[in-house]
Amino acid sequence: VLNRRCVEAAVMTGLALHCHINKKSLFDRKHYFYADLPAGYQITQQRVPIAVNGSLSYSLCIGNKMSQMVTKTVRIKQIQLEQDSGKSLHDDTRSQTLVDLNRAGVGLMELVMEPDMCCGEEAAAAVRELQLILQTLGSSQAVMAEGQLRVDANVSVHHPGEPYGVRTEVKNINSIRFLAKAVDYEIQRQIKELGNGGTILNETRAFDSKLGCTVPMRDKEGKQDYRFMPEPNLPPLILYDAKSLPANMNHQQVINIDWIHERLPDLPSVKREKLVEQYGILPEHSFTLLNENGLAEFFESVVKQTQMKPKKVIGWILNDLLSYLKQHSLTVKESPVSSFLLADLLNLLEKKEISSTAAKQVLAELWKGEGKTPLETVKEQKLELLQDQKELEQICQAVIDGQENEVIVMVLG
Known about the structure:
One of its GO terms (cellular component) is glutamyl-tRNA(Gln) amidotransferase complex. Belongs to the GatB/GatE family. GatB subfamily. This is GATB amidotransferase. Residues 297-412 form the Asn/Gln amidotransferase domain. The strands form five sheets. Strands 1-5-6-9 form a four-stranded antiparallel β-sheet. It is 39% helix and 21% strand. By secondary structure, it is an alpha+beta fold. The chain has two domains: 4-261, no CATH class; 268-381, no CATH class. The longest helix is centred in the middle third of the chain and has 20 residues, at 176-195.
């Protein structure tokens, strides 16, 4: 049975990626034998997928400098709906393979990009932007470590002006960092192989994260006949827009493309522009805010509660709080320092009740999560800045009076 929510998610994703949505798409059976495919075939969209001809814009830094960013675009060939397979778990210690069929048959959305990227860094940046878009739309939680987003990277090398070389496919990459490493390794491996007079096999490979290299899985030289055939249990998928929707049609039984388009949320690119325009922060800072899950919302919450200017707030969040989070491998949602506590601390600093050095000390105490407020910590550790000139003069005089020998030496000197 076709899952309505999966169709809506695919249409929403296609619209967000500027795709043409096919009002009529078809389902097919792809036959092959594998242990994690109990039916012996996979339902897919081989002939006419649900969405085609889109584009994804992404940004990356030049030479690791956040201030120098370039925007590139990768074409989206198609988005298709499929049935997920199971999952093979290889136990090398016992020489066993276990099969987890919990997700077999669940709706899967596959997005195919054109070969418009030339290195691991570009591939990683594009997938990270796609991940943010999927999370914004609610199409997927897209947590790669939990298998909610997986990447198959097709890599080939060629001289400029010549046809593409034989490609290899690195399967089931489960981290953006590993994606960049796998692509770059495979590029260099193929260049070295061809340079030594060898040939590249059209094979499937896996990325070994411990060794930092790709290893062969199975070759594709004997091209497999998947015996594609129209899926007999699913009729063509028909979608509508405002113009084609029949007047007497039950709205609960159809999917209206225009209705979904009107309800698209602000995408990450738009959110970045708004952050820069509203708070006057640097464009590169807007990327960092959105790349860390929940950090943009945390920043805006702090800004609303503090008298400090946003440009200063961003410095404290990115330079201080974020370093604590990365040091302890936590997300901002797991941080013991809430937006309320940080805003309270920054207000003390803005009012010049404490120094910047003292504020860092207080932040370190807040990180311990002992339930104290910034003001309580300041008073306990006597970190207040003294504003009374007479009191300051008395302290200075007491120091001088208690160090008579040193004072004499300084005067004589």
